[in-house]
Input
Amino acid sequence: MKKVLYPGSFDPITKGHMNIVEQASELFDEVVIAVLQNKSKNVGFFTLEERLEIVKELYKERDNIKVVLGGGAAADLALLHGCKSIIRGIRGISDYEHEVELTMANREISNGEVNTILLFADKEYQFISSSMVKEVFDLEKDISRYVDPLVNEKMLMKRMGN
Ligand code: ADP
Output
């Protein structure tokens, strides 16, 4: 069985991420989504626990999609979950350099055991990013084009203090 790890902060998970998950699920028998702690440069919206819960809820009916809590090097996490590949998405040139660095680091950490596959979201989801969603949301504008209705609802609830 071929399994692949899709690591990310998913703060929040967007339709861009979800499009990548769908593509990965057609290429692999199982996709393991690993929800990671935010990188320090990102301002967090949801806590790690909230993000994990949301992603689990979104994929609860899908037998070939598992959601786990991540941490440490993606290559170690991949091997821990029986994955020899990692999926990452690329939006444009700005993502490229960072993803090449991560690919090489993960290859080295795993002594060549874990490789990375880069995917591109479909045109309508190509430029959606979590930070753009948060900015539009902060302006109190509609984000339903960018996120699943469940995510939209959870963001509104969080704004209201629930
Ligand atoms: P990280 O903080 O690890 O970059 P993100 O949650 O921001 O985590 O993203 C996880 C992965 O999904 C990254 O490889 C990112 O480039 C990719 N990604 C995010 N949005 C899109 C999109 N709209 N199209 C393609 N890839 C995307």
